[in-house]
Fold:
Amino acid sequence: MLLLIHDPEPPPEERPPRRRLPVLPWRPFAWFAVFCWMLVAAGAVGGLAGYLLVLAAIFVGCWRVDRWLAKQYWGGLREVQR
Structure:
């Protein structure tokens, strides 16, 4: 006599985990948009006001790049001691 054991319920199907979409860094895009709009506004205004807007746009761009570079680790392997 051959005894077979049957499970009354089939095993539940395992679904693969859902892939999440990558998170977009919205702040750099916003700053870039501000920079571009300042340049567009400078072209629309013209004259001295336009020149001052171009200087302000360059200042804002350099300030953001400086803030970003300040967060980077620039020590490298110099602090490794033998």
